[in-house]
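Appendix B. Raw example, untouched.
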Amino acid sequence: MFRVGGGYLLANIKAVEVELWLKNLERAAGTCCKIRNVMSVLFNHARRYDLYERNPIQWVRQSAKRRSAPEVLTSSEVRRLLTALKPRERMMVLLDVATGLRQSELFALKWKDVDFKNRQLWVTRSIVQQVVGNCKTEASQKPVPLHDYLISALRGWHRRTPFRTPESWVFASPKKRPEGHRSSRPESNCNVRKDSKGTGTR
């Protein structure tokens, strides 16, 4: 049984319909390609054991390429952006520009991941749609060296944020919580574009 907003019998699954379903998913092209490949493997497994005679997924076209080219800011645009942002967002963008971390990895940083003494950052987890998981690749889990300027900026943010324990999220959500509730929760949808309006950045 294949479910896309309801139940589909195997015999009724069409390549074009699967393509349309993947196109409407709010996922990156690479993720959609992996979903398509897993579905194809399942059909091939069924064929191997004579459970089914065909694999309609082999005709599903799904590219792993980006759907649009990434926007790359110039150094002057980055400076204007940093000037316009609030402290938390400024630190977030500065760290991202300097290290190249994925958004999901940036949101999942905890203070225990920041090694001030050795000037490095441990990237061990990621957050996607409020779900905490492992990093995308093993290479992502290697320590990231930090420049002295970044260390200084992170120390400044650590003094400023109300969430400073090792288990606290570096970029905890600033949304209000019930009175007396002091635990932080991770950010997962920071709108830097909104805060940068009027700076001339793209």
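End of appendix B.
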